Fold:
Amino acid sequence: MIIHNRYIPAKKFYAINLFGVIFVRHGVHLNAKEINHERIHTAQMREMLFVFFYLWYVAEWLVLLVKYKNSFLAYKNIRFEKEAYRHGDELRYLKHRKHYAWLRE
Ligand SMILES: [Zn+2]
Structure:
C-alpha cells in the first residue's frame, strides 16, 4: 500500500516503508524500480517479523557508521539496502527471491 502525504518522511527523503505501508511525500512519484525497492523491504520485514527488521537495521547502521564515519555510506551498506538496491530494477525479483537473501549480502 502506498500513501501520499505531506508529513512522512522528513523533507530530505522521498519515501519510507513503515511496517509494509509505503509513505511517499506529496508531489513525489515513485517509479517502478523505487516501488520494487520498497517491496523488497516489505519482504525482508515479513521474514524478520517487522520489529526485528528495524532493530537489525538500526544496529547495523550504527556499526557501519563507526566503520565508514559517513551516514550515507553506512545506509547504503546495510544488508537490507544492498539487497534492495541490487535488485530494485529486476521487477520480477520478488517472484523468485529466496528467503533471507539479504543475509548473503
Ligand atoms: Zn531502501
Notes: The chain has one domain: 30-104. The mean pLDDT is 96.
